[in-house]
Amino acid sequence: MSYGEAIREIRNRQGLSLAKLAEKSFISKDYLFRIERGKVSNIGVQTLQKIAKALKVSILNLLEPEQKVA
Fold it and tell me: Residue 66's pLDDT is what?
């Protein structure tokens, strides 16, 4: 599972729309969409930190999804 898939799975489990996650993380909805779909190959640590904070999870849940998200 990629970090994009992990983000989408966690977001859906929490009942958050893409727009709401964008608002909470201060990242554009389009960019988040592209991350979730694997269209962004070089995402920065700061961006992952913003997403993790908005989702209220450790950044490790996004970096190691196969071990942290089941």
Answer: 56
- For the whole model, what pTM was predicted? 0.86
pLDDT per position as a tens digit, 20-30: 999 999 999 99
Measured torsion, CA atoms of residues 41, 47, 64, 57, in degrees rounded to the nearest 10: -150
Q: What is the largest CA-CA distance in the chain?
A: 28
Domains and CATH numbers, the chain: 3-62 (1.10.260.40)
> Residue 14 and residue 36: Cα distance in Å, rounded?
15
Return d(Cα 30, Cα 63) in angstroms, integer.
Answer: 21
